[in-house]
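Hi everyone, sorry if this is the wrong subforum. Our group has a chain we'd like a structural model of before ordering constructs, and none of us has done structure prediction before. Sequence below.
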Amino acid sequence: MPERIVRPSRKSRRQRRAAERGGAAPQEPARTGDPEAGRAPRIRRRRRLRRWLKRLLVALLFLFGALAGLVWYAYETTAIPAPNPSNLQQSNVYYWSDGTVMATHGSVNRVNITLDQVPLPVQRDFLAAENADFYHDSGVDPTGIVRSLVNMVQGRQLQSGSTITQQFVKNSFLSQRPTIGRKLQELLIATKIGDVYSKQQILTGYLNTSYFGRDAYGLDAAARAYYGVDTRTLTVSQGAFLAATVNEPSLYQNIDSDARARVKAVARWHYVLDRMVKDGWMTAAERARYPDSAFPTPHPWVRAALTGQTGYLYQLATDYAQQHAGITDQQLAHGGYHIYTTFDRTLTEELATAVTKEMASAADPKDRKNLSLQAGAASVDPTTGRILAVYGGPGWDKGAYNDIADSAGLQAGSTFQPVVLAAALAHGAVRRPGTAASAVSPDSVFNGNSDIEIYGANGFPLRKPGKNAGPLLEQNDRYASWGDISLRSAMQHSVITPYVQLGENVGYPAVKSTAEALGALSGSLSSDSADFYAGSSTISPVRLASMYGTFADQGLHINPYSVTRITYDGLPVGGLTPPTPVQAIPPAISGLVNSILAEAATKDGTGRRTAPLQRFKAGKTGTDDPYHPDWFVGYTRQLATAITMFATDTIHPGLSPVGADVGSDFPTEAWTAFTAQALQGKPDLPFTVAATPTPEPTTPRP
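Answer:
Right subforum, don't worry. Here is the predicted structure as tokens:
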């Protein structure tokens, strides 16, 4: 058997190394079984461990103290910043005359509200969904914070883990970037915010700054986007859904088109209502009223707010607000204005229906392939000046941004004849050169033939502009000649030549001042020429309706207006007062014009297609050559409306009428249909007419 190798013991090796160094070898304790023999090394090891533990404890205490100091320092040096500027931006809200919302518009779809505008059950919806202990907590949720940090460490999405206070801080003062730095800043501010803001202010800020989807920031914008109502009228069920949308707005906003969104929304809605019961804000019996079938399905998402006529109404009201209340573009861009308009929702819809129906009748694809039909209309209250309805075109959403109702680019044509007549009745006319102005009556006779010479104040015939041009020959529509005709009959049949000659006899200053007194804007009136009396001035439908409304209201003119009041942050904005009525022409003269225009709207006049409207009415058709638009401007005591229709030619430049009867067909029929509908159930009021002789001229002809 091989010899067993005996390795030297550890003690022997130690002794040998000691001997080699020349020192005495340490003595090995004897293996005698004495329990005290191995205690010394163990005692030394325990002492070393205690010293290490003491150092670790000191280090931990130091680290904790340092962290506490850092937290204290961060807390003391953290200031509550100013709110994000974007959170101060709001929509401007425009209201119909009945107080309902017509449109919201602005760079941010937000309308800030106060907490008293939110029904208490709806407030509790949000508390149940997000933070039931809101009124009792310190502003932070430690459990939620730990959960958020764990998710972050594990690489998952950084969740909010937030109270309502933290969400308010994030929305109002910080960015939305999910970083640790932002989260720590959020926690510090949330713990201090209670020193500056009350719980009610924090909840209000949270409701105003949260994003709800559908481009809606804040609860009021969300209520309108999802249910078409303002915050005050939200139900507890609707509030539960809106509270749910804050959780996943990008999903829930598509609930009308995404089945998955609806399933999740209904589940979350149930969760909120169940929490309402758990938190003691709803009884089990009340909760039982809301099964799946009672889910408050939101309206479909309509992204374009300024559709149809709303864009034109918005622009009219905005222009008026800026001109009369001094609101700048920058202020409007900031938002927060509540603008209450004169526009009647029902009348606006009825006017659009009447106009588009006649446009469809006028369209003839076979003969008019190259023509594009257009129309504009406006309706005002003669007794107040309120603009009640407009039709400006097919709508901004159709790419038609030019408001024809307020456009000053269309010639008035023979709708200007009543202005010339009113001026003649008020100022008289010079019938012979060198004589004073003499009285004119509706029965005064003029030459009604076509292609006649028009004579100026000096007694000489007018000449065409240009060197060596011949005499100016005025024409009637279709070149018709009527012979000697009274002004009454010429108005009834829309004969042009008598009124052009009458205008020359009255004089440009008198006719121009009369037009302005009746409501025409000075800049829309053309210069002194024979064409001026034939209707070359470009007067908008809004202004023509207002001018004819002056005849209806016994010669009192009230400037048309579109805004009744404006508020900002609940306070009224100054500068808005209703226009003051001004006596434009004497009542006797307006009475005479009423009687003549009433005859023009009979079966023998060009306005004969108003016959289905069995009411006291008056009006005038208009156009003065084949390249100008068709008109009908008509009125009753309660309503004055101007409607124009024309076609733009894609081959030949310019406008052309849409009918064959100088405005007596499509515009007149649209006016009749609209007025009949608008005045249904309202009294039939007679005009104040004058059967007395025409008064003497008030001033001599200049």
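For your construct planning: The chain has two domains: 118-294, 345-558+580-702. The radius of gyration is 42 Å.
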